[in-house]
Amino acid sequence: MHADNIAAHPRAALAGLFDVHAPSAADVADRHGVTSFASAAEAIAADTVDAVLIATPTSTHVDYLEAAVRAGKPVLCEKPIDLSLARVNELAARIAGSPVPIMLGFVRRFDPGHAAAQRAAAAGEIGALHQVIITSRDPGMAPDSYIETSGGIFRDMTIHDLDLARFMLGEEIATVTATGARLVDPALMARCGDFDTVVVTLSTASGRQAVITNSRRAVYGYDQRVELFGSEGMLISDNRRENLVTRHVAGATGIAAPLQHFFIERYSEAFNAEIGHFVDAIEGTAPVPAGFEDGRQALLLADACFLSVAEGRTIQTSDLG
Amino acid sequence: MHADNIAAHPRAALAGLFDVHAPSAADVADRHGVTSFASAAEAIAADTVDAVLIATPTSTHVDYLEAAVRAGKPVLCEKPIDLSLARVNELAARIAGSPVPIMLGFVRRFDPGHAAAQRAAAAGEIGALHQVIITSRDPGMAPDSYIETSGGIFRDMTIHDLDLARFMLGEEIATVTATGARLVDPALMARCGDFDTVVVTLSTASGRQAVITNSRRAVYGYDQRVELFGSEGMLISDNRRENLVTRHVAGATGIAAPLQHFFIERYSEAFNAEIGHFVDAIEGTAPVPAGFEDGRQALLLADACFLSVAEGRTIQTSDLG
Amino acid sequence: MHADNIAAHPRAALAGLFDVHAPSAADVADRHGVTSFASAAEAIAADTVDAVLIATPTSTHVDYLEAAVRAGKPVLCEKPIDLSLARVNELAARIAGSPVPIMLGFVRRFDPGHAAAQRAAAAGEIGALHQVIITSRDPGMAPDSYIETSGGIFRDMTIHDLDLARFMLGEEIATVTATGARLVDPALMARCGDFDTVVVTLSTASGRQAVITNSRRAVYGYDQRVELFGSEGMLISDNRRENLVTRHVAGATGIAAPLQHFFIERYSEAFNAEIGHFVDAIEGTAPVPAGFEDGRQALLLADACFLSVAEGRTIQTSDLG
Amino acid sequence: MHADNIAAHPRAALAGLFDVHAPSAADVADRHGVTSFASAAEAIAADTVDAVLIATPTSTHVDYLEAAVRAGKPVLCEKPIDLSLARVNELAARIAGSPVPIMLGFVRRFDPGHAAAQRAAAAGEIGALHQVIITSRDPGMAPDSYIETSGGIFRDMTIHDLDLARFMLGEEIATVTATGARLVDPALMARCGDFDTVVVTLSTASGRQAVITNSRRAVYGYDQRVELFGSEGMLISDNRRENLVTRHVAGATGIAAPLQHFFIERYSEAFNAEIGHFVDAIEGTAPVPAGFEDGRQALLLADACFLSVAEGRTIQTSDLG
Questions:
Q1: Interface membership of C197 toward A (CB under 8 Å)
Q2: Which CATH code of 3.20.20.370, 3.30.360.10, 3.30.70.360, 3.10.450.50 fits the domain covering B108-266+290-319?
Q3: What ipTM does the predicted assembly reach?
Q4: pLDDT tens digit string along C221-241?
Q5: Which label site among A81, A296, B269, D253 has the fewest CB atoms less than 10 Å from its CB?
């Protein structure tokens, strides 16, 4: 998808790609008439490559990110930077002072609805912001193998919402309180020390509050809503459906289509817009909309969630890294 | 229902009632501790009766209306005045000049939604009014015996919408074009020379248009919508549901409750408001909101609909009574 | 309002009433042609009084409740029973074993939408219940004098939502975590040691979660929503508006009416239904739908909220009364 | 837009293009690295061109269509085929029997919502179809120069809805009744003998009804709705908005974004799907979804509308060509 979006962007061109699964890489390279590199290192080093987009497994992000930065090439990296805050902090220390633009793939910031709500709130359309309510539920459980190595729900799923909360609140988060339950697949969750149903409450120094509600399985589809409540009003960015047909029959009215299935469909416009923002950042015409520190903060908050559940108390982020 | 509404109204009291079905009358009279009159004549004549509400079969309306007017008692009469425009015109001639307030039970004018839309349009909130779209479908077929004597769909059902169109358009209707079909119960409709599915198009001298869509059976409930389209915007008065719960499950979202079942439920607030308007008219604090001439006009338009279908042409109302 | 609802109920009659504000009492008594009692004691003792509805200031509830129970008269008491859990526990001890029906006025349980959602969830329509999300915001600040003596937001406002959460969850609450902020009127809140913007997270022994979001002032109206999320779907009981008209103009579409203003309008049907449930309980045809212990539990949870905010930790309800 | 869609389609390639405005053609050709032909004839004749898409002014359609058919190249032609039914009939006679696929650009058939509604109705999800209600209003007046030569509202605008009505009804249209008014720009409309506000009623031999409501200017945006009413239910394909954010403030709730501006945005997915259907037709894997005869029928119905308004009567299509 990223390759297609880059190729279709009027101010970008796809130079080539690398994928450990060679046939996939060859197929995409073929379709676009571009190089299929032999390794990530080769891709990052290639003269034809001006900028790098990293959408590989999480464990490779730190190395590739560092390589791209050292090569002086702007980089767009999928979240999370890493599952270990310590490794992220070490990387931060190593690349400190580099002028190379680093952008994190917090795609939800670029959703037309979420972004419009954020702009409206930031412009004061609902006065002073008081509460942010984020509902985020996946349409179904990821494979067991993913769950087992994902770093846990707060790092694999909530992390998007933690970033979105920061984006919406417009102020750093001071406290984190989380509740975790095992209701969808209790056995798997217990085995992994993980949760499938969580609520996270955040607050800022000025008292603004955010609530995140997550589930690993919503049978009715990918539920992605944001509500912003302020002193002068409320904004709601609602779910998108497959189409806008409603059916009205004996006993029930207003029956609507399922929600768009999953992130590829739901955030298709956002993924496209993300490339545009990356190009702007590369060209220097606009600041990076979600950078390395945003990635680090989201991971730090995810860690705080685990700690809060473990200790049954509110965590002060000032006590963490 | 009318008896209960009168009894509950702060500025009205139920004096008594008459019903040809004596046990029903006794039951209601008992419940409210009022007189059950022996005849309509007795009820109309009674000293304790200051005003009369007629909700009897259509064929009795003309006589009771005339009796009430001659007794000098303000009267609220259910529509239609009669099935025969000639009889209505004769009555009009006989009671011409009487100062007694006569109000017609065009209850939809008093629905909070429809009334708010009309007020907003009349106040210019959507600029100049161009089109009125009325959707009006019954939840199910009335009994055969009703259909056989109702005077036909345009007089028993569309008449409400014809009045609503006049109310919304704010201008007399110049032309009427109607299309009738037999799709719900073709055999019954053919036998009665009636239709169960109709579309009526109206236009005014200034070119404003109204469209009425009727069906004698909507399985999803009593469908009552009004759309007002103008030079500066649009107003939609939507259906009311039994409650505001939506259900979201695998394969379908937004599943809402059925529409409120039928006119008693859907227009409960309107029936209450109607009594208030009648009391205002009796007390002389406000003009009659829907009077005898409104009832006559609606019947005339219903006649025009039948003529239009029969002759396959647009009818000029100026050619009728 | 309660007097009118009792008078209008087909199986109840208003016997009389007492109000410390004598002119108000006289006015209502006059209107209904009933006795205006000289004292609460007289009202409770009167032979003509079969059952008692207490809608007096909170501080009087315990005494009146006890008097009614001792008089053997079923009682419907507005929440909260008292601001002091200790006093409530003492009362509980004194009236233990009494067969007199005591009903608490948790009116939201009787709202057509909320009640339909609860029934659907209890009937398994959304599988196993996982999360309950309650949004409850007042349209505006109560007078300072009320805030100063109300017992704080958790006891004056959240208490309704705490009861609703228990009603929806169908399982006792095991843990309580609350966050409180002063964003609407920081000075007043600081002076009273109170909050105007809170988030409460509850969980049950089986892991079910509830989230309550409160604000003392929502400029767009009285915001009352409930969302039930389960293994097989979701139910949302939405806000009610003044009417169902939408307006569509240059630059904005779907503009709807304000929400129904406040609890009298929003829960008008619920207040009516509440009387019916009380009559059922008096007649013994149905169990009391919300009893003394429900009132005690809600107060206990409100206390837990204050404790959670004060100590910055999750409270185990098993550690409280 | 068509060039971009062809280029992006996985089973199509853009071979080249011709536009009388040479700079535009050069610009698009450059961007896609394809030939800019010197004339339509050259484009149609080119060996590299396997199929032809005609999106030129209406007056050129007949000639280009015939040229493409004679060259044996499948053709997708924008509606209408021509403003003159006689010319269309003559062309039909000249190309009768040709096996070359001809597809008409009735893009609304391919809208995800409209298409899903049609499929659901055709699959019997709402029983037997009784009524089709099409609302179609442009966001603003086209330039005077367009209006003056467009062939009139029924041929330039309603023609899309006439085709959509045929598509939805699934049965040929037997009668046409139209009403036309001059409310948006009376002077221009009178000068052109045209209308800006029209209602069209259609019926089929079996009695099914369709209503089309048009306006040349809806200030709230491009209003495109379809309602299908049947014996077992109703389907509504609703408008699309720029995003799904609603705003709730003092005095108004549910304030939503404007409708997607015009046909390019509103039917973007449909224009894409149209190319896919054309490719299927070229490859012979699916029948042409909207062919020459569909184009002829829509034009015939548009003529019937003008005749109906002129003569104030219902037109039998059997009396026309």
A1: yes
A2: 3.30.360.10
A3: 0.95
A4: 999 999 999 999 999 999 999
A5: B269
